[in-house]
Description:
Layout: H1 2-23, H2 29-41, H3 43-46, H4 64-73, H5 95-109, H6 127-140, H7 142-145, E1 152-153, E2 159-160, H8 168-177, H9 192-207, H10 223-248
Antiparallel strand pairs: 1-2
Amino acid sequence: MIAALALAGGVYTAFTPGAFAEDSTPLSSAAQQGKELFDNSCISCHGRDGQGVAGRGPSLIGVGSASVEFQVGTGRMPMARQEAQAEQKKPQFTPDETKQLAQYIQEIGGGPEIPAGELKLDPKANPEALARGGELFRVNCTSCHSFTGAGGALSSGKFAPSLHDATPEQIYAAMLTGPQNMPVFGDNQLTPEQKREIITYITVQLQDNKDAGGIFNLGGYGPATEGMAIFLVGITILVFTSLWIAGKS
Length: 249
């Protein structure tokens, strides 16, 4: 038995280094630059090779480049301090540096990526895309982001951010990765084409036509809310005017 174990150990020792050498893939040039940025700015919270640090930051293995491009590209990461949720702020990395960080995380752990090509459809060439995108947005997004995309409060100090300044890349990445309290909309929940339709609706209807209904855009529901506001204000003024006249008489 001892001889058999020694033989098995010798065979394993002889062949294992070669197997590991075959599996180790060198990082691309962009990923190597991303690793330098990671080691200087992210390793204290996310650990060596993105493995995570208990009590500081989660593992980045499997989050993909899409998550990095959203979190770092919107300035949510790196966080200044632990809060209920990471808020958007001025990014600390340039777009090229963000791409390099994203490529590094993608190569060491894999995960979802933002697809290449145009993410916003042309409503003139595809008129039905805008209507389908609006329907998908109302079914999947309005419960948190509101019908106007202005966002809304959630529990425990958290909130759904406004979509009025979000880029197509940020919206697509958010749907792929589910940042903060947002659910993940994988391709089995929303196909890539449906994601593009939602982006088309947000960018065309909610960003380009913010004041589509009503003069003051109260709530974004059109003239109905404005009519109600004018009615309440007008009735209040009439009541106080009547009381003033009655007091004078």
